[in-house]
What we know:
Layout: H1 11-20, H2 30-36, E1 60-63, E2 67-71, E3 77-81, E4 96-101, E5 108-113, E6 117-122, E7 127-131, E8 146-151, E9 158-163, E10 167-172, E11 177-187, E12 190-201, E13 208-213, E14 218-222, E15 227-230, E16 239-241, E17 247-252, E18 256-261, E19 266-270, E20 285-290, E21 297-302, E22 316-321, E23 326-330, E24 345-350, E25 357-362, E26 366-371, E27 376-380, E28 395-400
Antiparallel strand pairs: 1-2, 2-3, 3-4, 5-6, 6-7, 7-8, 9-10, 10-11, 11-12, 13-14, 14-15, 15-16, 17-18, 18-19, 19-20, 21-22, 22-23, 23-24, 25-26, 26-27, 27-28
Amino acid sequence: MKRTPSYAIPPGVFRLAVITLGLICISLHISSAEAAGTFRNVDPSEAESVGADPAPVKPMIVAGQNHVAVVKSDGTVWTWGGNRSGQLGNGSTTNQLTPVQVKGMTGVTALAAGSNHTVALKSDGTVWSWGANVYGILGSGTSTESSMPVQAKGLDGVTAITAGFNHTVALKSDGTVWYWGRVWTGEFDEYFMAYKSVPVQIDGLTDVVSIGASGLAGWALKSDGTVWGWQPIDLEAITQRGGVTAVVALAGGFRHFIALTRDGTVWTWGENARGQCGDGDTKYRDTPFQVKGLTGVTAVDADSNMPEDNPTGRGHSMALKRDGTVWTWGDNQYGQLGNGASMNQLTPVQVVGIEGIVAIAAGGSCSAALGKDGRIWCWGSNKYGQLCNGTTKDSANPVQVKGLSE
């Protein structure tokens, strides 16, 4: 294999690899996982019957580095915010301060967002994506970005999708897991950056029922209840993970992780320089720690993006409680915690002014939430219009998205 140009693998990759060996056992919990935007599992009762109208899609919201996307109950996709790489899917690369519909996308059942690309799963089991493609993360067989949806090659029968910093993952109905995007290849501590521009099966992963991705890693839940994780290093280091039990949902930040357990408590570990672990300090955490004061949680999410102005990452975390309130902690430089301030928070604070929330999304320096009344709220950085309020002014308080409701 030609090994030029070469790159020094980021130190965090190896550190993260060690940490993720302590990852956890996940049990399937459809409502929490769907609300977190990580999993999409269809209950048999939702299946379409012959001759019947298509069942309505459960609305979902996701956020990338500088853009936000929603799938409505009619299966259409709407996006807004930064569009430098075409991640809004409207055929242009112009930022959008109001929602635009993704061209040609109907029958969508789930969404995922990487830093600068967006991924959609259609009801026919095919995967479509648009935006940045520098590492082949669109799965189209090229490294050319696209401002219009393109189909991932060779994939059908897909039941779930997820996206990391520079990679995309799909789960097929046969329980296999498929990966495309950036990988590292090499040996003896000398690694070189490469990429997979079409989906490839991850060997050793079968009987998988759910998947997830963080900034630099991925994980899979098998039908026997075991969890297996990998790093993008030749896609061969598949390791079973143990630790915290009775986990129902998992969210990955750029270099930190959040686990939600069956009793509604939240556990975190990993990078903590901005307080994203919510443990009251900024020390790196090698093992899971229970976030104090959070109970009755039904969904979690974390910012898995690498900030444009900080290659080491920042990170903030979110939790949705059963009472419809949203709680956040970690980096707050742009007001992405939604508590009316801009100071980092080492423990959870409640997002002000919103209630009745059913889904959350943590983007790069911004956050979003979907209410049961169909209203969408965003807060934090608005440099690219990701708050969708017709301006580019940041807000430390939630603002309602204009021109779109579920």
